[in-house]
Specification:
The structure holds two protein chains of two kinds. Chain A is an alpha+beta fold. Helix content of chain A is 33%, strand content 24%. The radius of gyration of chain A is 17 Å and the shape is globular. By secondary structure, chain B is mainly alpha-helical. In chain B, helix 14 runs parallel beside helix 17 and helix 21 crosses helix 23. The N terminus of chain B is likely disordered. Classes of the chains: A alpha+beta, B mainly alpha. The interface between A and B is large, with 56 and 56 residues. Strand 4 of chain A pairs antiparallel with strand 1 of chain B, so a sheet runs across the interface.
């Protein structure tokens, strides 16, 4: 429950959520997440060329954290996309729900995080898990 | 959800024969086998739906023919389908065993775009029944009908959801409002599907928990996560502050809101939140609780600094008053609860019973008042009797066991005649052990002032008589000093003793003729010796008043050693010098 607790404390703060873009052949959910066929094809091109990582093609959504649940699904309100030209379909979207499993990164405001407390919480969690 | 819906649509799809090539698909009106009227009707609906889609998603996507990069196609398919999808030429092989239709749309660009989108969407729709998209373009009537039925079914299923467009479930793009109200499809006029009924079941669920506070303000840009979510008060304050700060112009009315009733929303939210309940929130939710507790403390500190030095809140342990358990007034050993004691016909029995069994309790309320009344009557009776010279000593004692009785007696004493008062005094001294042992609330000292006055008026003989009681042995004890040792432990008793001795000394040292009876002096000296030895041996309590002539008395009778011992003992009890020697 550590991450849930942590994210709960960030409700109401502005975050940037970067989504996964892994397109391993068996993983199509992420492909749906980004949804861009061009991504798919460019990835495939890279695969042909032997490039492992496909950079700079991740969808990042900036918004206010509205809520979070135990699966770390995130609801963002008042969102804006970092690269609207690349992801124009998001222009009209105001709120979104992001499945937790496709989140790669969540960029947080640094002053809203108490790292010391986080460490304490992590230790507590580890202790609990041991028991 | 999508999984459960898939079989439904698949059955619908399996019936028609999907053409292998896209040539069957035509966007020309009056195509083979089409009913013109029905088609026109559906086309109208299509347009309306398209308008909605455009408004929702904003963009008029103009695609070139066969352009696979239409961004509106979020919904990828299974891997085998993926590579094949972009090639929309009629000659391309089908994607999947289900023979996806190949769409080739010709017409005006705008329409083409829509058609293409629609066609592709339709293609995908059967893969993903959760998609709400309508078919644009001019496929055959049969296809249209099937498509429409599926669409309307999907729509109705999603009627209660918050979702505008959904995919396989990874990313849902929502509008604040949601779907438009479903139009009745001409081909399949369906009432509520069972699925929808299930969804509606949520509305019949029990009311939300008491801390629900519905947020009815649609104007807010940021809404609270939900009525069932419990936020730390500090967190809540922060959020509301933010809302106040970022007050923008109110949004225009959203025509697609309120598709779900508040109850339904609560129900769904509660479903989730129930899983998050924990017995030990401080441990499970440690970071959140601690974070906001610290923030609160910090803010409080800052506030303190701003308002000047204020006393920091003391960490007080709240004193929990023990609930008064019912204690029966009259209790007999081995019995349960209160014993019924008749008070109407035999008040004395009630009083005695109470006094005998509950000596330590202060009688309260009605019982107390009742007893008071009784005692007052008793006192009046007693004084009347005493004026008449009737002995009523035995009746007096129970009164004295109650503190109120003692107070009353103390008030009564000055009004009694000297003889009556003496009788009272002798009674007190003779029953002193009983009185002392039962004086749990230490209310005996109230008698002291009045008795002292009485003592002050005593003659020597009377004094001796009273003093005898002090040295008298208890009925069950042969040791005469038991009483004295008890007296030493009692403030009242000791003070009374001192008062008596002081009076005796005063009488002896005065010039007033004593008129002693025979044996009085011996008794006096004996008493003094006894008292002195007892006082020097036992630990003394602090008396109510230490008469100044006591040590003088002792000096006359006792040796120096005993006097020193006595003096130190008395001084240690009182804390100051008994007498400047």
């Amino acid at each position: 429950m550590l991450f849930y607790s942590f994210f709960k404390s960030l409700v109401g703060k502005d975050v940037v959520v970067e989504l996964k873009n892994d397109l391993s052949p068996g993983d199509t959910r992420s492909a749906h997440a980004t949804g861009l066929w061009e991504n798919v094809f460019s990835y495939l091109e890279d695969v042909d060329k032997g490039i492992q990582e496909h950079s700079e093609s991740y969808l990042s959504i900036c918004g206010t954290l509205h809520s979070v649940d135990q699966y770390l699904n995130i609801k963002l309100t008042d969102i804006s996309v970092t690269d609207p030209e690349k992801y124009p379909h998001m222009l009209s979207v105001k709120n979104c729900f992001i499945r937790g499993s496709v989140v790669r990164y969540v960029q947080l405001p640094a002053d809203e995080v108490d790292t010391q407390l986080l460490q304490d919480a992590a230790r507590k969690e580890a202790l609990q898990q041991k028991q | 959800m999508s999984d459960s819906e898939q079989p439904e649509t698949e059955t619908a799809v399996s019936q028609p024969q999907w053409p292998e090539n896209g040539g069957q698909w035509s966007d020309e009106e009056g195509g083979a086998g089409m009913d013109e009227c029905g088609l026109a009707e559906m086309a109208e609906e299509d347009e309306e739906i398209d308008i909605y889609n455009n408004e929702t998603f904003g963009m008029e996507v103009v695609d070139t023919e066969g352009d696979p990069t239409n961004p509106l196609f979020q919904f990828g398919e299974k891997p085998p389908a993926l590579p094949a999808l972009p090639s929309l030429s009629p000659s391309s092989p089908p994607f999947s065993p289900r023979a996806r239709p190949q769409l080739r749309v010709q017409g005006p660009p705008g329409r083409r775009g829509r058609g293409q989108r629609g066609g592709q969407a339709m293609a995908q729709m059967f893969e993903d029944p959760a998609v709400v998209r309508t078919v644009e373009g001019r496929p055959s009537l049969q296809v249209i009908t099937i498509a429409r039925s599926i669409v309307s079914t999907c729509r109705e299923m999603l009627f209660s959801s918050y979702v505008g467009v959904s995919c396989n479930g990874d990313v849902l793009f929502t509008q604040v409002g949601g779907l438009p109200s479903p139009r009745p499809c001409p081909s399949t006029p369906q009432p509520l599907t069972p699925k929808m009924m299930q969804l509606r079941f949520g509305a019949n669920s029990p009311r939300p928990s008491p801390f629900y506070s519905p947020s009815s303000n649609r104007v807010q840009r940021f809404r609270f996560p939900g009525p069932v979510t419990q936020l730390h008060p500090q967190h809540r304050r922060l959020l509301s502050q933010r809302q106040q700060r970022s007050q923008r112009k109110p949004d225009s009315w959203d025509p697609y809101c309120n598709l779900m009733s508040a109850k339904e929303k609560e129900w769904i939210i509660r479903l989730q939140m129930i899983q998050l309940q924990s017995e030990n929130p401080h441990l499970d939710d440690y970071y959140y609780q601690e974070y906001y507790r610290r923030m609160e403390a910090k803010l409080a500190e800052e506030e303190l600094g701003m308002r000047g030095k204020r006393e920091p809140p003391k960490l007080t342990t709240p004193y929990v008053t023990k609930m008064d358990s019912y204690t029966p007034v009259v209790h007999i050993e081995g019995s349960l609860g209160q014993v019924a004691v008749s008070t109407c016909f035999s008040p004395r029995r009630a009083i005695n019973a109470v006094a005998a069994h509950c000596p330590h309790e202060e009688l309260k309320d009605i019982r107390q008042q009742r007893l008071d009344v009784l005692k007052k009557i008793e006192k009046v009776k007693y004084s009347k009797w005493h004026l008449q010279g009737v002995e009523a000593e035995e009746e007096f004692l129970p009164c004295l066991l109650v503190s109120k009785g003692k107070q009353l007696l103390a008030r009564l004493l000055p009004f009694l005649s000297h003889d009556a008062a003496l009788k009272v005094l002798s009674m007190v001294t003779s029953h002193l052990p009983v009185l002392m042992s039962r004086d749990s609330d230490e209310s005996l000292p109230v008698l002291y002032p009045s008795l002292r006055i009485v003592i002050g008026g005593m003659t020597f003989s009377q004094l001796i008589g009273v003093l005898k009681d002090f040295t008298a042995s208890l009925p069950d004890s042969s040791d005469g000093s038991v009483c004295l040792s008890l007296v030493c432990q009692s403030k009242f008793g000791l003070s009374l003793l001192y008062a008596l001795l002081s009076q005796g000394e005063r009488l002896l040292s005065s010039d007033v003729p004593l008129e002693p009876s025979i044996g009085d002096f011996e008794t006096w000296t004996d008493t003094v010796f006894l008292v002195a030895s007892q006082l020097s041996q036992s630990a003394l309590v602090e008396p109510l008043l230490l008469p100044s002539n006591l040590l003088t008395l002792f000096c006359r009778y006792l040796d120096k050693r005993t006097i020193h011992q006595l003096k130190s003992n008395m001084e240690s009890a009182t804390g100051y010098l008994a007498l400047p020697s």
